[in-house]
Amino acid sequence: MESRQSLAVAEEGLGDDDVNLPRAAVNKMIKEMVPNIRVANDARELVLNCCTEFIHLLSSEANEACGKQQKKTISAEHIVEALKSLGFGGYVDEVNEVLTEHKKETKQRRKASTKLEKMGIPEEELLRQQQALFAQARLEQAQAEQEEYLKWQQAQQMMQQQQTETHEEGKSSEEATTVAAAAAATTTTTTAPPAPVPETATATASSRTDGNDDEDDYECE
Length: 221
What we know:
Histone, subunit A, 3 domains, 8 helices, elongated
C-alpha cells in the first residue's frame, strides 16, 4: 500500500501526457492488430487509459515484491511475480520470450560498442559522423523534392503552352474561315446578272421611237 501511495504522490506533480503512454505508439499497435477496422477516437482514448492504468498497477505490485525482498531495483523477476499475483499468469511465457530476445539484442549492442572502442574511434567523432550523415540525407531529400517540383512545374508550363497553341490555331482557323466567306460573298455580288427591264419601260421607249420616225417622214414631205 505504501508503494502505491508513493506512486500516486509522485504522479500528482505530472500532467496527463507525462504519465500516459505515447499516443502514437498506442495508435500504431491498434493499427497493427486491426488493420482493416476503423477505431473511433474515443475508443483509442479508452485503450490508452486502460494501458496506462495497467502499467501503473503492475509497477505498484512489482514495487511491493521488490520491497519484500529488500531490493532497491525492480528487476524482470519482480514483474513476473507481479503478473502472477495480479492473475495474469497466462502472460508469463510471452513475457519471458520477450525478455530473452531483449537480452540478446542488448548483448549484440554491447559487442558492437566494444568493436568501435577497439577501432579507436572516439564517441564524439562517431556522433559527428552520424550528424554529418543525417545532414547529407536531409540535403539529398531536399534536392530530390526540388527536382520533383521542377519537373512538375515544367510539365504544367508545357501543358499551358499546348493549350495556348491550340487556342491560337483555332482562332486562326476561324479568322481564315471568316475571310473566305467574305471573299465569296464579294465575288457573288460582282458577278450578279443585270436586273430585268420592266415591260412598261420597253413599251414607252418603243412608242417614243415610232413617234420620232413619223416626225422624220413629215419633214421629208
